[in-house]
Specification:
This protein has 14 helices and ten strands. The strands form two sheets. The protein has a six-stranded mixed beta sheet with strand order 8-7-2-1-9-10, with helices on both faces. α2 packs across α7 and α8 packs across α9. The longest helix has 19 residues. It is globular.
Length: 315
């Protein structure tokens, strides 16, 4: 086995009931759900385990729910003895990566993402922002489209550059609609509107970024024990000042996921272990490179299966 990266999912991977069996059968993991409830003074664990789905899907709830569940899953997987050479996360998942790397405590992280979710929901009036996935159009052509629409007065930009042929755009509702039409005219295979509560990773999130900066200023951020690949630049970061700056920029900048995977491979990573609900990132990694190994750890069953598979692989 070459180098290993732990990768953590972002919004969209949440499901009611995630982490429940883990919390019921593995005490160290259960503690994360208790700590989240206490830190937020809110029964987050009940919402995660019982729903309802529409409440869990609210950004202010989804973000701490995913961070908590991902850390509980990681706690169980730590029994494997495998330590990552690098960590990375998609959007919200970057906070999971930073907690995993020891850059800040779980309690501070869960509070920060709860506030981050609130700020993101409130940055743009409901209905005035949107996001859409554009399939089958390359980055340069799509950038031309979004620039053209933005220059005409309806802001829209690239938000998530996920893998070849899959890019998410974000901005004003009209800007995203117009860019979608023009993207199809330029050769895009499909444009899929996303069910989100705001235009995330666009310039319209700058008011949220200003408020987030105040929260991050109050946090104790340490040097990361493992390099964390920043969403904004797709390069490793460990220094507290840089971490803070990149987290602020991340709110209104594109998530460079495709480049993150490419750079990790260049750094010698050949094994990607997704830790958290679902396996969205594992799929994206495979679309960037078929030659690397990917594993998804989302509960006790998959955690134990991956531990066994990796043990077999090192014999």
């Amino acid at each position: 086995m070459g180098k290993v990266a732990f990768i953590f999912p972002g919004q969209g991977s949440q499901t009611v009931g995630m982490g429940r069996t883990l919390a019921e059968s593995y005490k160290p993991s259960e503690q994360f759900f208790k700590d989240a409830d206490q830190k937020l003074d809110f029964p987050l664990s009940n919402l995660i385990f019982e729903g309802p789905q529409n409440e869990l899907t609210l950004t202010k709830n989804t973000q701490p729910a995913l961070l908590t569940t991902s850390m509980a899953i990681l706690e169980h997987f730590k029994q494997s003895g495998i330590t990552p050479d690098y960590v990375a996360g998609h959007s919200l998942g970057e906070y999971s990566a930073l907690v995993a790397a020891g850059a800040f405590s779980f309690e501070e992280g869960v509070y920060a993402v709860r506030k981050r979710g609130e700020f993101m929901e409130n940055a743009v009036p409901n209905g005035e922002g949107a996001m859409a996935a554009v399939l089958g159009l390359d980055r340069d052509k799509l950038t031309e489209v979004t620039n053209e629409v933005t220059e005409s007065g309806d802001p829209v930009q690239l938000a998530n550059i996920n893998c070849p042929g899959q890019i998410v755009i974000s901005g004003s509702t009209r800007g995203v609609e117009l860019a979608g039409v023009k993207a199809k005219e330029a050769g895009a295979k499909r444009v899929i509107p996303l069910e989100v509560s705001g235009p995330f990773h666009s310039k319209l999130m700058e008011p949220a970024a200003e408020k987030l900066a105040e929260v991050l200023e109050e946090m104790t951020i340490h040097q990361a024990k493992v390099p964390v690949i920043a969403n904004v630049t797709a390069t490793p970061m460990t220094e507290p000042t840089e971490i803070k700056t990149k987290l602020i920029q991340q709110l209104y900048s594109p998530v460079q996921w495709e480049k993150t995977v490419e750079n990790l491979i260049e750094l010698g990573v050949d094994t990607f272990i997704e830790i958290g609900p679902g396996k969205v990132l594992s799929g994206l990694v495979k679309k960037v490179s078929r030659s690397v190994k990917t594993y998804a750890v989302s509960d006790i069953e998959t955690s134990e299966a991956v531990m066994e598979a990796l043990k077999e692989g090192t014999r």
